[in-house]
Amino acid sequence: MHQEQRIVLPDHELNRVLGGGLVRGSLILLGGEPGIGKSTLLLQLAVRLKNLKTVYVSGEESGQQIRMRAERLNSDLHSQCYLLTETSLEIILQHLNALKPDMVIIDSIQTMFHSQIESSPGSVSQIRGCATELLRFAKDSGCPVFLVGHITKEGVIAGPKVLEHIVDTVLQFEGDRHHIYRLLRSHKNRFGSTAEIGIYEMQGNGLAEVSDPSQIMLSQRDEALSGIAIACNLEGMRTMLIETQALVSSAVYGVPQRSTTGFDQRRLNMLLAVLEKDVGLSWVLKMFFSILPEG
């Protein structure tokens, strides 16, 4: 059976999500909210691939700004990493055909434009046309291409939905900008599983891989406390321990309310309804509330 050729990346979490490495000639779309760390993740990858010729194309930042970000990551732009600040796809393809790189990063697809398409950059026609041209370049040259895509307020990648059908892999970079942890998920992967996730920690000098996610999902306590349950969950080929905390108190109003943090509210209501119906959980809760002290 023929096995596709893969480039083993120095980022083990990204390797895991991609299915064991980067497939040559593939087109990968990386989406996420502004400021979540998409550009940081790919710039780290570019400067760490010292044995491969990499072209980082930026339509949003100047070359000096990218160099400043690389210095903040404690990384130097080596001789095999080329920077190109350009938004014209024709000019970009001319440079790529001349350099013949091993990997290309486009940051972002919304800033690219093709002169033969009569619409402004970021429009549906421009995004579709530029993605199709980059797909043709990737397949003809065997060079993998990363596309950075912004997402809308509704949480979907900006541009036409057909963009997700054009690319081989769709990655989503998730997390709260006010917290340090980030999750990398695969919503589509023609060359691997979509069940794998990558976990990163945002530090002052960039993104650090989290090899043991159980350490961040369990509270470090020496004594046993009530209201805490630990379960073993399987995400792809990785097992991790997840801690669930529950707090129950008497209500000062007529109808008690249920609220969640980090868990879907509708799924919680469904699970509690099943427990009340089949396990008699409502009887247990009534007994619990009856022994609570007043006030």
Would you kindly provide a written description of the structure presented here, covering whatever features stand out?
This protein is of the alpha/beta class and 295 residues long. The protein has three domains: 6-211, Rossmann fold, CATH 3.40.50; 212-247, no CATH class; 248-295, no CATH class. 31% of the residues lie in helices and 25% in strands. It contains nine helices and 13 strands. The chain has helices at residues 12-18, 38-48, 63-72, 89-99, 124-141, 162-166, 214-217, 265-278, 281-290, and strands at residues 6-7, 22-23, 27-32, 54-58, 81-85, 103-107, 145-150, 169-175, 181-189, 197-203, 206-209, 228-235, 238-245. Strands 5-4-6-7-3-8-9-10-11 form a nine-stranded mixed beta sheet. The protein has a two-stranded antiparallel sheet with strand order 1-2. Strands 12-13 form a two-stranded antiparallel ribbon. Strand 10 and strand 11 (206-209) form a beta hairpin. The radius of gyration is 24 Å and the shape is elongated. The termini are far apart.
CATH topology of the largest domain: the name is Rossmann fold
Count of extended strands: 13
Elements, N to C (H/E): EHEEHEHEHEHEHEEEEHEEHH
Report low-confidence residues grouped into runs of 5 or more: 287-295
**Name of the CATH class of the largest domain:** Alpha Beta
CATH architecture assignment of the largest domain: 3-Layer(aba) Sandwich
| Straight-line distance between termini | 70 Å
How many distinct helices? 9
Shape: elongated
Largest sheet: 9 strands, mixed
Q: What would you call the structural class? A: alpha/beta
